[in-house]
Amino acid sequence: MEKVNFFDSELFNKSVEKTFLLNKNKIKMLLPDVDIQHVGSTAIPNSLTKGDLDIQVRVCAEQFPKAVELLSSIYEHNEESIKTDTFRAFKDDTTNPPLGVQLTIIDADFDFFWKLREVLLANINYRDEYDNIKKEYEGKSMDIYREAKHKFFQGLMETPEFKNMISKSNNT
């Protein structure tokens, strides 16, 4: 059973920033017209994190098949993740910190990672609630933590703050 452990995100700031910029540049060389976002807990100052870096690569629908092909040439497919016509997950466990790359079609069903980050950045109560979930599952099963995390994010997506993010993205 894989166990989950959390750390203060501030411990990873330098390595996260370096790894993010290196991978952003690497992706931009292959896909110059995409939106690349630092998402996940390391994008939230003073939060708890598993110590990995998450990047969201946002593309238009026409770019998606080519983006899958090009990202597959530099990253491993994350076989533990779902795969749809609008979402693919990749990883690189050799980077410091380990890297997850979420490829999404802009405004499609999985284009929510950056919105969750923005809601968490804007609301300390949600950040505290999320960190409390992490504290509760410290040292416990990764699968059980992922279920609790999923439930939290499903609830966060029902908040007025998140719904406001949807209307903002639709007006751009």
At the first level of CATH, what is the class?
A: Alpha Beta
Helix content: 40-55%
State the separation between the terminal residues, measured CA to CA.
Answer: 44 Å
> Which architecture name does CATH use?
2-Layer Sandwich
Quantity of strands, as a count: 7
Structural class: alpha+beta
Strand order in space, largest sheet: 2-4-7-6-5
Topology-level CATH name:
Beta Polymerase, domain 2
Rg is 16 Å
Low-confidence stretches: none
Mean pLDDT: 94
- Percent strand equals 15-25%
Q: Please, how many helices?
A: 6
Described by the principal axes of the CA atoms, the overall outline is globular
Assigned CATH superfamily: Beta Polymerase, domain 2
Element pattern in H and E: EHEEEHEEEHHHH
Give the total of domains: 1
Nutshell version of this structure?
It is built from six helices and seven strands. It is an alpha+beta fold and 172 residues long. The strands form two sheets. A five-stranded mixed sheet has the order 2-4-7-6-5, sandwiched between helices.
How would the blueprint of this fold be written?
Layout: E1 7-8, H1 13-30, E2 35-39, E3 48-49, E4 53-59, H2 64-72, E5 76-77, E6 87-92, E7 99-105, H3 113-122, H4 124-137, H5 142-156, H6 160-170
Parallel strand pairs: 4-7
Antiparallel strand pairs: 1-3, 2-4, 5-6, 6-7
